[in-house]
Amino acid sequence: MSRATASLPRTIGAHAILLTYTAIALFPVIIVIINSFKSRAAIFGAPLTPPTPKTFDLIGYTTVIGQGDFIHYFQNSLVVTVASLFFVLLFGAMAAFALSEYRFRGNSLMGLYLALGIMIPIRLGTVAILQLMVASGLVNTLTALILVYTAQGLPLAIFILSEFMKQVSDDLKNAGRIDGLSEYTIFFRLVLPLVRPSMATVAVFTMIPIWNDLWFPLILAPSEQTKTVTLGAQLFLGQFVTNWNAILAALSLAIMPVLILYVIFSRQLIRGITSGAVK
Amino acid sequence: MAAAPKRPFRWHIGVFLAPAVLVYTAIMILPLAGTLQLSLFRNINQSQVFVGLENFRMLFGDPNWSVNFWNALRNNVWFFIIHMLVQNPIGVLLAAPLSSPRLRFSAFYRTAIFVPTILSFVIVGFAWKLILSPLWGVAPHMLDLVGLKSLFTPWLGKEQYALTALSLISVWQFVGIPMMLIYAALLSIPDEVIEAAECDGITGMAQFWKIKLPLILPSIGIISILTFVGNFNAFDLIYTAQGALAGPNYSTDILGTFLYRAFFGFQLQVGDPNMGAAIATMMFLIILGGVCVYLFLVQTRLRRYQF
């Protein structure tokens, strides 16, 4: 007996539900972006129509680029995200390899210890983290943020990567050992290239919360020199409450890089979620 | 790292583990323990003095703190209830059609519905603030199109609606996650189970309720605990949309914003790290409690359904 095929009314129903929700999900994003290209009068006069040659205006963008130090904030965010990502992936993969490859006393206890951080948010330790950073003179440095985000990303990275590393064939690793490769060479030359797809998944998972975080930049690095783009946007939006062109332009500028990255990496992200990596 | 007997000490295990364990312990576990410890001390005459549970007594009993604390906790529970009641049903409602075989454009729907989840709270908070603003008039304009303009009020500015409105914005942002997890669970149901149900004449909605729903309950359990942890740790959305004072009149104050104000101070009140630590400890205990309930009750009972 063949599986009941979707009948026409049911297919239409499915598309209707999904299209409706897609509209709800995208509507605020679209409305912000189209209005950012319009003149002030048109933003208020006809908020739901796309810009026409008559109402097209880039005044918002010129204000934002002239006022805020956004390029600098953007660089800070980039440095923090890339560096944290590098350390999370490197340290996470090393620890995951140790946990999944070797049998030693305390292995599962160590795994459990490292998995604690998946459920308990690092934010709850903020009071003591700030004291630690003050004591070590790291307040208002990007290093503080990188350290915190590395610690924040490690538990989930180790958990997901060790699941994948268990699937790497033992024969391959043993062949390497017989050929006299050291354990380090086996890890860096044999295992790492094989788990590269799962590293990409972990990278996307780790990257989004770091890029979007407001709490730690606000607390650990609020100075002008170290502001991230999220914090910068927050303060900028607070200052320009009445300049709607500038606000809409700033929001659009903040949305677009994330959106472009997402469209490029969405396959990785969705495969990561649906492959049961989050158990 | 003791080595197994008759083997040389395997230094490489230590080398592989050390960086992760060091960073994780130093930046996450020790500060967490330090925060729990700080909640038992108080700064008297420039020195930390052990006061036992005095900070917690103040938090629960002293009207200066307890009014705000219970208010934040109540709001946080409401925030969580809205998520559970709205986010999960919408997640199921979207995942069910998405998982039907041979649905066209399913990759497009998946990608589009997940877009809000990747945006930062700053963007989400501000974009909705603008849309719901009576000044701009997008929301009244939309309601006017369906003839419901009279329903419009500035939701974010009214005490009785603000928290619910913010919860719904948060649901809008995160609904992609339950949708994806339930979608994955629905895809992993073996064809034989579905075929057996069809042989017994169970199709359509009955099939969904009687066969599929029990099989995706473990995923709903995971989603619930993720939502619980996320909600009791939330801060950013309220802070961007309503500011640290969580207005109007503290009606949107949740534990995260309360912690921020207690720790850093605001306006005339000076920040108090010890009270901040006490609030963080309460959040820790609430989250730990939720995780334990999940691990011991929900997961052990649900495992029976797994393949």
What does this structure look like?
The complex is a heterodimer of chains A (279) and B (307). Chain A is an all-alpha fold and 279 residues long. Chain A has 13 helices and no strands. With 307 residues, chain B is mainly alpha-helical. Chain B has a single domain, classed as MetI-like fold (Orthogonal Bundle). In chain B, 71% of the residues lie in helices and 4% in strands. Chain B has helices at residues 11-38, 54-61, 63-98, 106-118, 121-132, 138-145, 159-174, 176-187, 191-199, 204-231, 236-242, 255-264, 273-302, and strands spanning 41-44, 47-50, 265-266, 269-270. In chain B, strand 3 and strand 4 form a beta hairpin. Chain B starts with 10 loop residues before the first helix and ends in a 5-residue tail after the last helix. Chains A and B meet through helix 1, helix 4, helix 5, helix 6 and helix 7 of A and helix 1, helix 3, helix 4, helix 5 and helix 6 of B.
Please give the alpha-carbon distance between the first and last residues of chain A. Answer: 33 Å
Total tally of structural domains of chain B: 1
- Mean pLDDT, all residues of chain A: 85
Largest interface: A-B, 99 and 99 residues
Kindly report the CATH topology of the largest domain in chain A.
Answer: MetI-like fold
Low-confidence stretches of chain A: none
